[in-house]
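Please check our next protein.
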Amino acid sequence: MKFSCDKEILLKSIEIVSKAIAPNNPVDILKGMKIDVTDKIKFTGSDGNISIESVFEADIEEGGTLIVDSRIFYDIIRNIPDGKVKLHTSENNDIKIICENTMFNILYLSSEGYPNIEKVENGENIRIYSKNLKDTVKNTLFAVSDDESRPILMGVCFEINKSNMKAVAIDRTRLALKNQIIPETNFSDFKFVVPGKVLSDILKILRDDSTIVDIFINDSSVMFKFETFTIVSRLLQGEFLDYRKLVPPQSNIQAKINVKAFREMIERASIIINYDDPKIPIVLKLKNSEITVECISKFGNFCEKIDVDKYGDDLKIGVNSKLILNALKCIDDEYASFEFTNMRGPFVIKPLEGDSYLYMVLPMELKN
């Protein structure tokens, strides 16, 4: 094996491919990064559930394939001088990495036994802008469950209906839903569930731009393809919860609230409880044309109010500050609609117009 490439290209590929590599993987060969050199360079990382591949051009003199320790390889490339990097193997089962006057020799392993990455070649295809996929994932991922007894809820459920893509995440205390317009498809009620961990890795890779992301899905796997990268993951199997049955069909109390002002008020309330116990509820009081946020901890108490447009009865309800902040941080609208049934029922946050998002939070019981 012998090739040379610009450091920046190498570093970007290593950084992204390494996200699929678990250093503590019980399968030794999966602790490393596979390098394939043919007419192009291909880096591959896998933990058995998610695989990431990067293919790029380089000045190639001799082909080959091997496995290197991804952590050592990354640290070396990150710290060598900028510019052209030369890599070639020797007869001593090591690979030389040379840049200007800097040279490293590191051992490598045979790639024999490295699993083949089963790409989704004949699956259904969806196209979406990178910025839109990133926004959709970011605005739902926080609500993915960590309950291993219900693994299907440890992912985000995507529903495709013609030109609409709906993403839904649910745990025991909240629901997050995001609607996104995509190029027209032939699908009606097409669903698949992607593991939250995979989406977390993808979120770190996606650009906030108009790069096209191709998503291929079959019965068991999903593949994301964009730029020089290919990401393959298993899908979660099982029946996802019917979130429509969880959302209250109607509300008794509605309030039009300034999102930024309300979020900042809750952030200030969180200061007083985070030094005590973040699980202490904050109290929301809707009365007349005001909403008041209150909380009490052993370090002190907090109270602040802002004006709102309220319809319906007065209300006092306890909430977990983190749960509601997670939702509020996803909303770019100046105002949103907050809908309540009673002090014990879930409340919903929606846009004033349309259905671009929906967040639902279960309240906390207040002690007298």
About this structure: The mean pLDDT is 94. Helices lie at 7-17, 70-79, 130-138, 196-205, 259-274, 321-328. The CA atoms of residues 139 and 330 lie 6 Å apart. The chain has three domains: 2-107, 124-244, 248-361.
